[in-house]
Queue: 3 jobs
Job 1
Amino acid sequence: MLRNGSTVTEFILVGFQQSSTSTRALLLALFLALYSLTMAMNGLTIFITSWTDPKLNSPMYFFLGHLSLLDVCFITTTIPQMLIHLVVRDHTVSFVSCMTQMYFVFCVGVAECILLAFMAYDRYVAICYPLNYVQIISQKVCVRLVGTAWFFGLINGIFLEYTSFREPFCRDNHIENFFCEAPIVIGLSCGDPQFSLRAIFADAIMVILSPMVLIVSSYMHILATILSKASSSGRGKTFSTCASHLTVVIFLYTSAMFSYMNPHSTHGPDKDKPFSLLYTIITPMCNPIIYSFCNKEIKEAMVRALGRTRLAQPQSV
C-alpha cells in the first residue's frame, strides 16, 4: 500500500502465495512438524544443560545451552509467520513489523555465527591444550564470550537495520520470500541500493566469513592434533565428530553468505527461498541433533533425568 501515492506503509510477503492449495497444505504440515521438532529438541537441550544434571557443568554445555536458546529465538522469528501465511490469504505485514523481524533476524543470526566460532575455539583448546583448558576457558571467560556474541548481535542488528531502512520506499512492496530478508527489502527502496548492499557485504565479511575461517582453522588444528596422538579408533570418532560439526557450519554459513554476500542481480525467488529455508529452519533443527543428541554425556543425562521422573511419579501418586 502506498501512502499519498509515494510511500510504502506495508509489505506483501509473496512466499508460497502462488502455490496450489494442496501444495500449501503439504508445506504447512511439513514445516509445522519441523518447527515443533526443532522447538522440542532445543528446549530439551536447554533444560538438560541448564537445570537437570550437575555433571554437565562445563563450558561446552554452557555454550550448547545458549546455542539452543539462539536457535529457538531464530526459528520463532520467521517460521510461525510463514505457517500463518500458508493458511490465510492475506500476506501483508506492516512496515514496523517488517523492521522488527529483520532486526531480530540480524541480531540472533549474528550472535549465533559468533557463538559457533567461540564453541570451535573451546574444542580447540580442550583437545590441543588439555592441561591448560581450565585456566584458559574459565567460567568467567565463558560468560564473557557468550556476552560478546549477544552484544555483537544486538549492536550489529541496529547497524544493519539502519543500513536497510535508510532510504524511503516508494516502489513495489512485494517481497519475494516468506519473511523480510534484507537484500530483497533494500532492492525495493527509492534510492540507489548499492551503498546499503555494500555495507551489508562488508559487515558479512566480519560476522560471517571471519567466524567461518576461525571455525575451519580450529577444526584443522584439532584434526592435526588427533592424527599425531590418538589411536585409529579415536581418530575415526574425532573425524566423525568434526565432519558432522563442519556440515552444520557449512549449511549455516554458505546459505547466509549466498543471501547477504551475493550481488543483488543474482537474487530471485527460486534461489532465495531454498537458501532462506536452509538457515532459518534446517540449521536450527540440525544443531541439537549434531551437537547434543549425538553427545554421549547428554544422552546419559537424558536417561538419568527420565529415570528420576519415573521414580517421582509413584511418590506423587
Job 2
Amino acid sequence: MILANVFCLLFFLDETLRSLASPSSLQGPELHGWRPPVDCVRANELCAAESNCSSRYRTLRQCLAGRDRNTMLANKECQAALEVLQESPLYDCRCKRGMKRELQCLQIYWSIHLGLTEGEEFYEASPYEPVTSRLSDIFRLASIFSGTGADPVASAKSNHCLDAAKACNLNDNCKKLRSSYISICNREISPAERCNRRKCHKALRQFFDRVPGEYTYRMLFCSCRDRACAERRRQTILPSCSYEDKEKPNCLDLRGVCRTDHLCRSRLADFHANCRASYQTLTSCPADNYQACLGSYAGMIGFDMTPNYVDSNPTGIVVSPWCSCRGSGNMEEECEKFLRDFTENPCLPHDQYHPRE
C-alpha cells in the first residue's frame, strides 16, 4: 500500500514538473527569450545565412586557434564576436546521438564551447540534447536489473543474459549488427595482434547506436545470480579486443586521449551529465533518469574510454574503464575521483540491482 502511494505521488510530481517545464505553460515575460533547441548543423546553416553572424563565427574560430581562453578574451575583436554569437542559435545548439552528420554537429559545438571554459574542466557540459523519460520507463528498466516482475522460482533458475541474447536474435536488426561486431572483434590479425581494435570499436558503436535500448540494455545490464551468467554479461562487448590491453594506462591520460576526439569527448561529457551521482534524488541519478544514464553508459562503448564489468562476480558488481591511477603523482586525488564515477557510482549497475534471495 505504501509503495502504491509513493508511486502515485511520484507520478503526480512527474506530470506536474513536465507541465511546468513545457514552453506552452510559460506565460507573459517568462516566455520572452525562450528558443526551441536547434541542432548545431542547422544552427550553422542559419548563422551562415546571416552576414553578421557568419563573419563573427569566422572571427571566433580564428581567435580560438592556438590561444588559451584568457588570451582570446583580452582581444576586443574576439570579445565582440563572442557576444554576438551568444545571441545566435549556435550558442545553444545541441546534437543527437547517432544522428546523421553527428561528427560535424559535434565539431561545430566544440568549436565554440572549448573556448568558453577556463582551462581543463573536470566535468564538461554535454553537447547532446537531454533525454527525457517517464517514471514508468524508469520502473520498467529497473525491473530488468533486479529481475522483479517475474516469478521468483523461475527467475532464480533462468539465465537472464542468455535470454537477452535470444531476444536479440529474434530481431533482424539486432541479430545482424550483433553478428557483425562479434565477427569483427573475434577476427585475429596475427599472433602478435589479436584483433583490429579500431574496427571492433566501430562495429560496437554501430550496434549500440542503431539497436533499440530494449535489446542493448537487457544484454548489458541483465540480472545474474551465478558466475556463468555474469561472465556472459561481461563478454557482451568482446572485452579481449574492445576493452583489455597489455597494460592499464593512467585514467587521466586516457581521459586526455579521449578528449582529443570530438566523439569520445562528447560521449564522456554526456556520461558525466547523466550519470554523475546526485544524492538529492530518489535514485541517485540526475533527475531520477535511469534511462538517460544507461544510454550514456552504452554510448561510451566503442571508444578509448569503453567501460565494462571488471570481473564475473554476480553480486559484487564493479564497472570501470580499462585504466588505473598508478603514476598520477600530485593528480592522484583527481584521478581517484574520476575513477569513482564508474566504480562507485550508485546510478550504474551495482549490488542494489541484484538482490540476494
Job 3
Amino acid sequence: MIMAAAASNESPNRSTEDKTSARRQNEVNKKLKYISLAILVIQNASLILSIRYVRTLPGDHFYTTSAVVMAEALKVLTCVLIILIQKRGNVKSFVSLLYDSLVVQYLDTLKLAVPSLIYTLQNNLQYVAISNLPAATFQVTYQLKILTTALFSVLMLRKSLSKIQWISLVLLFAGVAIVQVEQEGGKQKEAVTSANQSYFKGLVSVIISCLSSGFAGVYFEKILKGSSASVWMRNIQLGIFGTLLGLLGMWWNDGAAIAEKGFLFGYTPMVWGVIFNQAFGGLLVAVVVKYADNILKGFATSFSIIVSTITSVYLFGFHVDLIFTLGAGLVIGAVYMYSLPKPNTSTSSTSTSSSSHSKGGDPELDSFLPNPKAPGKKKRN
C-alpha cells in the first residue's frame, strides 16, 4: 500500500517534469530554427556578394583556381581536426579510422571521385559566373539548380514530384527566363560590357554550374545510400579529391602565371574572407540544416535573393525594374512552393527525409549538437 501510494505520487511529478522539459526543448528548437535561418541567409548572400566585390575591384586579381584549391585544403584540415577532437585527441584511434575509411574501404572512397570532380568544376564555374554577372542576376539564375536536381532525381532515383512541385518548377524556369530577357536587352548588359566582362560567358557558366550541381547532388545521394561514414569523413574524402583535381585544373589554366607570380598572388584580407566563407560556410550549413526543415531552407534561399538584390543596388549600382522584379518574384515564390511538404505527408516524415537527405544527419554530428527533435528523456526507476 505504501509503495503504491508513493508510486502514484511520483507519477504526477514525473509527468509535470516531462512537460516542462518538452516545453523548454521546443523553445530551444524554435530559437535554433531562427538562428539556422539567419546563418543560411547570411552564408548564401555573403558568399556571392563578396566574390562579386573582390572580382570587380580595380588592381591585380587573385587566381580563382588557387582560391578553389585553398578552400578545399582548409575544408579537409577542418574536418580532420573535428574528427581528432571527437576521438578526444587519441591519435592512434584517429589514424586507424582514417586508414580504414580511406585505404581499407578504398572502393567507397573512389566512388566520391566523380562528385568531387563535378564539385571542383562547379566551384571554378561559380567564380567565372559571378565575375561576369551582377550578383542579383546570378543569385536568381542559380536557382535553376533546383530544376536540374529535381529532373535528375526523377530520372536517376525514380523519385516522384507533387503537382505543386511541378508547377513551381515551371514558374522557376519562367522567372529565370524573364530575368534573362530583361538583362539581355536592358541596361545591365551595357554595364557589364563596359566593365570588360562577358554576360554570355557568365550565363553559360552558371547554367553549366546548375547542371553539374543537380547531377552531382543526386549522384552523391545515390552512391551513399547505406553508407555509415560521418559527414566529416565524407568531406575529407571529397576534399582530398577536390584538392588534387583543383591543383590539376590550376596547373592547366594558370600554371605559368602562378609559377611566375606565386600561389597567393592578389590575396587580400577580403579574398581570404571569401575563401574562409567558401571553405567553412559549406560545413556550417551542413551542421545548420540539422535544425532546418525543407520549408525553412526554401525560405532562407528566397530571402537571400532579396538580400543580394537590395545589397547589389547600394554596393554595385544594380538597376531593378518592374520586369526584373516580376522574374525574381516568380523565382522566390517557386523556391518556397517547391519546399512545401507533399500532400498527405506528415510533418515527421518530411523532417526525417530532410535530415537523411542532408549531410547533417549522422551520429558523429549528433555528438557535437543537441538533438532538436528529442523531447525530454524520461527517467527510469
